[in-house]
Amino acid sequence: MLQVNTLFIMIASILVLLMTPGLAFFYGGLVNRRHANNMLLTVFMMCGLAVILWIILGYSLSFSGNHWGVIGNLKNILMIHVPIDAVTKTGIPIGDYTMFMMMFAIITPAIFCGSVVGHGRFNFLVIFTICWSILVYYPLVHMVWAPHGLLASLGAVDFAGGLVVHVNAGITALILSSWVGRRQEVTAQHNNLSWVLIGTALLWIGWYGFNAGSALAVNDTAVQAMLTTTISCSTAMVTWMMLDRHHFNHVTLAGACNGAIAGLVAITPSAGYVTLGGSVIIGMIGAAISQYFIVKIKPRLPIDDVVDAFGCHGLSGIWGSVATGIFASHQISKQVPNGLLFGGGLHLLGSQVFVTLLTIVFVAMMDIGLIKLLTTVLPVSVDNKGLAAIQSKDL
Q1: Which residue of 25, 189, 246, 391 is most buried, as measured by CB atoms within 10 A?
Q2: Angle made by CA atoms 312, 314, 316, in degrees to the nearest 5
Q3: What is the DSSP secondary structure assignment for residue 87, as one 8-state letter?
């Protein structure tokens, strides 16, 4: 069984890695032609940058030791003294688990980087990603997924990265796009909708590794995660199409793809913990919340999130994390207590709301502090004339 589980996580890691070029296609198709290549480079470079960072510092800061439940230590820097063939408590080799977690470290910064392509400076984005990985991402991984993590001790339930990946990346995209300001030229024309469809398909396929792989074994939980992932994604896509029809009297391919992504994000925190019926409702509401924000609220705000990373990932991730406290079933998974709908009362729901708010506050404060620090030495916006005004904002 050990060999089967090891192979399963290896395949899941490959699928999660596939999500990054899929995201590059998805984002590259949404922006205008002038910025398409820049978008592809910005997203795909994470396959190099994030891997190096994870091996040098990421694994050690995430899973080695424990300081205040917030961060690990540097005893395993460069993965020194890590017995990669040793079997973890989940029954797979440490090397296999490290590879799987590395893929999450790649896709997460790729999500928010796309939000400022075309109006944020590339050099700033690279330096910001390095600092953000060390000061925000690795601590959050430790707090949620390490045995003695702060949020884990507060009862946080995050099956596959709702807090660690999507809420984290979504809030970061919101802060970055608010700080950088609006593009000098804004066009509603997409570069290539075929890319958007291809990217969505690759993301959907890769998400099975993301969610089912988070069971860390070939078991009933992995099967449940695959089913709920498929159902939530499909429901959200159809919901978004119906809402587009209602608002605009026509259905768009970009809208259908955004709906699919919103459904995938929304189910991520609870994929192995909820019923199939619960996944329908989670996907439906996730799409409705994201679509309403993008269509009705975003145009009124002083932000220019080019690819709606906050609208799709941030808001759907927040909803999905809270929804875990409503729809989780102890009968589906013995790892979680019952949610509100299954007689669990407000215990799990209250803890999910609390840890989600803590995550938002932590990420926002760290992002703002980091951006303010970096902008003292690096220009952040491609529009130098507007830089002073942007930096003077009291965020």
Answers
A1: 25
A2: 60
A3: B
As a whole number of angstroms, the distance between CA 121 and CA 160 comes to 31
Chain Cα centroid distance, residue 219: 24
Tell me, what amino acid is at 312?
Answer: C
Q: What is the Cα–Cα distance from 177 to 303, expressed in whole angstroms?
A: 6
Our CA dihedral for 311, 21, 213, 288, rounded to 10 degrees, sits at 20
Provide φ and ψ at 310, rounded to 5°: -70, -45
Q: What confidence score (pLDDT) does residue 181 get?
A: 74
The residue among 239, 326, 238 whose CA lies nearest residue 275 is: 326
In which band, very low, low, confident or very high, does the pLDDT at 204 lie, cut at 50, 70 and 90? Answer: very high
Confidence of residue 384 (pLDDT cuts 50, 70, 90): very low
In one-letter notation, the amino acid at residue 32 is N
Q: How does DSSP classify residue 209?
A: H
Other C-beta atoms closer than 10 Å to the C-beta of 253 total 15
Question: What is the residue type of 390?
Answer: I
Residue 186 pLDDT grade (very low, low, confident, very high; cuts 50, 70, 90): low
Question: 391 falls in which pLDDT band (50, 70, 90)?
Answer: very low
Residue with tokens 């996580």: 9
- Do 102 and 51 contact (CB within 8 A), yes or no? yes
Q: 108-162 pLDDT, tens per residue?
A: 999 999 999 888 889 999 999 999 999 999 999 999 999 899 999 999 999 999 9
**CA-to-CA distance for 113 and 40, rounded, in angstroms?**
11
Q: What is the mean pLDDT of the chain?
A: 93
Residue 26 and residue 159: Cα distance in Å, rounded?
25
Report the sign of the C-alpha dihedral through residues 376, 380, 382, 388, in that order: negative
Give the global pTM: 0.94
